[in-house]
Amino acid sequence: MKVRCLAGILVGTALMWGASQDSLAQDKGKTEAAELTSESQTALQTLTAGVPLAKELGTKAEAILVFPKVTKAGFGIGGQYGEGALLKNGAATAYYKTTGASVGLQIGGQQYGYAMFFMNAKALDQLNNANGFEVGVGPSVVVVDEGMAKTTTTKTLKDDVYAFVFGQKGLMAGLGLQGNKITQISPK
Known about the structure:
about 40% strand; 6-stranded mixed sheet; single chain
């Protein structure tokens, strides 16, 4: 009788501990999702405050995928990683990671962010339905540089996705988005 009682208490304790760990993991995931949402919203606000074209595109975009901080490093072989939120009407609807690898003449490291403005439902569907959306494969993605941002209006823009790179810190040549793979995630 005492052995059964002790076994019952141990099993009950283990089940309660497991349930509390699941609850803690869910709470941590909610916290990380909230932080990623906030960082993405702040990065987008900073971008649109400083770049009128980004602000104008933001009012017409189906959704905006914002990676507030991407870290890139390399010494012959390079890699990059960042996490971001898909914002629709200012609210996060999904979370993604961006990854990439490269080989060639490169040395250094840097951090930057980027935002992709999905201008139509078809382009957004390709992001949502892809098992890994690769920049340069699928809808046309135009990287907007400083010169283009100053001389272009939304009346002349007809592409599916516009990307703005912002907040570059560090030294590294050859920054581009071609070949980046974007995959949906659940915050940890």
